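Appendix B, example 12.
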Amino acid sequence: MLSLEPWTIGTLVYAKLDGPFGGQRLVTGGSPQVFQTGESFQGAPIINYQHPHDLLMELGAAYRVARGPVKYTVGAYLVGSPALGPAAFMHRESARDNPQAPLAHHYLDSTHITPGVVTVGVEAGPMTLETSAFRGEEPDDNRVNIEPPRLDSWSGRATWRRGPWSAQVSGGHLHEPEWFEPVDVTRLTASITYDGTVASRPLAAMVAWGQNREPSLNIALDGYLAE
């Protein structure tokens, strides 16, 4: 899976930051988005805009086998998404027409482009249990390269599906996701999704909650989303 965002999502970002930028515009890919945070550029945290996603968004392989009513899956990805959070926003029916990443993106599904992921899962009836080992650090400023994979973080997710309904709860330990704040983060998420019809009209909706905990700093930040 590829993305052209390194070249198509803007070239000028209107952000004023203290420090070496001196209140000047930052010249980089990205799209202005008030209150959005997450990742960094040229030695400073990104504030008030959404960064472009990497050129290579997923590259890997998965093998799935059924043994009676139980199905087993194992996957390995040079770049991929660990078992943490709901489906990434660009793959959700409820976000199909949204022009921007949700403000809760970095509380829910920001690990969808992770260099180095190994996942195993078991599916029985409506329930799926998955666990992943992956690199906790966010991608760097270079949106066209691939960072060295490291399995220094882990996650687990339980998913229930029945008809148009699905729900998931997940949690993970991320090893120093942001270089400018070198502390480990514990992420917890929960979401309920409906993708069906109401009165013969299609309806796709999701409500979700995510929390980033930084135990070493005694900080817990919550994000909420309804779409």
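The chain is about 5% helix and 50% strand. The helical segments are 5-8, 105-108.
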